Amino acid sequence: MEVGFLGLGIMGKAMSMNLLKHGFKVTVWNRTLSKCNELVEYGATIGETPAAVIKKCKYTIAMISDPSAALSVVFDKNGVLEEICSGKGYIDMSTVDPETSSKISEAITAKGGHFLEAPVSGSKKPAEDGQLVILAAGDKALYEEAIPAFNVMGKKSFFLGQVGNGAKMKLVVNMIMGSVMNAFSEGLVLAGKSGLNPNTLLEVLDLGAVGSPMIKGKGPSMIQSNYSPAFPLKHQQKDMRLALALGDENAVSMPVAAASNEAFKKARSMGLGDLDFSAVFEVVKFSNSS
Ligand code: NAP
Q1: For the domain that residue 238 is a member of, what is the CATH number?
Q2: Is residue 163 helix, strand or coil?
Q3: Are 115 and 57 in a shared domain?
Q4: Which residue, 162, 194, 224, sits at the end of a domain?
């Protein structure tokens, strides 16, 4: 199966690498084109623009940072829309809001193309290991055709119905994750300030119901102030912002998420946006420093 891949950031690089390793022919494009070179070493070919990738491939996947970037690769000059046509499929796996996804879907389908949104749950390591959870919605036939690629990139795929439902599911998941990360950070600070060993807290959490892969995975590095990015904090704040907007639309009161969003915003203002989202721990530490 030949696929195009737009966006070789932390996630896109790992996902396209998996496709290559499993025998897919992959044509890659990235805004910073030099990032394509590593993939070429594994057999990928380079498309000079998103339009060039679409022209070459029947199916193209995108994994781009945020709504404005996702729109840009579709609507700008040399973008996806210039070459999408009947018989071609576009699968956007970026985390965006339902409105952005719908706008892209309408433009693609107006030109006869097929569209699927398919954001993912899971971070850098699951992407490397092909263990993502894929939250797809949109064109059911395209979903069925994409299953071989999804099976390589993920451990489970959901088809959630109409365009927007995948985006919504992803935002709900990440809103919960961002709030849990803030609560966990407060717990780590409280443990330390009240004279407990934070490492012992990690052990206790791991043995009880509150423990989770996220706490187990991030806790030790947070205690060492190591925030090497698996999920950049600026993207987590984007997801909190988009989830809060979804809450606005549906009149859902979410004070915990709103407070968590403030902490992520503060972290960005402290220059921590490119670090892992667990660096929000620094905000909690800072606001409790005497
Ligand atoms: P990343 O490492 O920051 O990569 C972002 C990608 O978007 C890069 O390829 C970047 O190109 C590209 N990009 C940014 N602005 C662009 C623009 N205006 N036009 C074209 N391309 C642009 O982010 P990531 O962690 O891979 O995340 C990608 C998406 O997956 C995001 O929506 C994120 O929320 C979602 N996600 C991430 C994780 C995770 O754990 N990392 C997990 C699940 C979902 P350059 O290389 O040129 O900057």
Answers
A1: 1.10.1040.10
A2: coil
A3: yes
A4: 162
Using one digit for the tens of pLDDT, what is the confidence trace for 107-145? 999 999 999 999 999 999 999 999 999 999 999 999 999
What pTM did the predictor assign?
Answer: 0.97
Q: What is the dihedral of CA 48, 234, 104, 134, to 10 degrees?
A: 90
CA of 189 to the centre of ligand 1 (A): 31
Residue 72: count other Cβ atoms within 10 Å of its Cβ.
15
Q: Are residues 113 and 39 in the same domain?
A: yes
Of the chain, the end-to-end C-alpha distance in Å amounts to 59
Task: Show the domain range for 30.
Answer: 2-162
Query: Which of 6, 11, 177 to mutate to test ligand 1, by most ligand atoms within 8 A of the CB atom?
Result: 11
Same domain for 147 and 220, yes or no, is: no
Residues 194 and 253 in one domain: yes
On whether the CB atoms of residues 270 and 208 are closer than 8 A, the answer is no
pLDDT of residue 93: 98
| Same domain as 116, residue 89 | yes
154 with 108, same domain: the answer is yes
Residue 1 has pLDDT above 80, yes or no: no
> What pLDDT score does 290 carry?
72
Task: Give the torsion through C-alpha atoms of 147, 136, 279, 285, to 10 deg.
Answer: -140
pLDDT at res. 53: 98
Domain finish residue from 136, 162, 188: 162
Atom number in ligand 1 closest to CA 229: 41
In sequence order, what DSSP letters do the residues of 22-73 get, joined into one string? TT-EEEEE-SSGGGGHHHHHTT-EE-SSHHHHHHH-SEEEE--SSHHHHHHH
Pocket test for ligand 1, best of 128, 153, 227, 235 (most atoms within 8 A of CB): 235
Counted domains in the chain = 2
CA-wise closest residue to 258 among 247, 274, 273, 250: 247
